[in-house]
Amino acid sequence: MLSSDEGSIWSISWGDIKYGNILGIGTLRSRVIIFQEINKIWKEIAYHDLHQASVNWVEFSPFGLKLFGGSSDGTVSVLELHQKNWKFSSFKASDYSVVCLAIQPLPLGESVSE
Length: 114
Known about the structure:
By secondary structure, the chain is an all-beta fold. The protein has a single domain (about 10-90), classed as Thrombin, subunit H, CATH 2.40.10. Helices cover about 0% and strands about 50% of the residues. It has strands spanning about 10-15, 20-25, 30-40, 40-50, 55-60, 65-70, 75-80, 85-90. The strands form two sheets. The chain has a four-stranded antiparallel beta sheet, with no helix packed on it. Strands 5-6-7-8 form a four-stranded antiparallel beta sheet, with no helix packed on it. A hairpin with a 2-residue loop joins strand 7 (about 75-80) and strand 8. The N and C termini lie far apart (about 40 Å). The relative contact order is 0.18.
């Protein structure tokens, strides 16, 4: 059983099975959380609370252990496992609420320039 004191869960996303049973959630209380099932018990393994409003949508990337979260504050956050450490960042995506996300992988060898 998954337990958290986060109140309402607005969105869930399953991670790639190669990382085990991984579940990402976005909450009414502005948090993005990753849970992993370890020995038949769900444990919170990473989270952030960068958003100023509810997290309406979460979506795992098709590559790597990276969870994106879209919020009513117009930002998109990224919670990513990088060299055994969790890193998080966010960027302004809209002047309005972000209510859904679609993660498009880049062609092999290309990267996003900032």
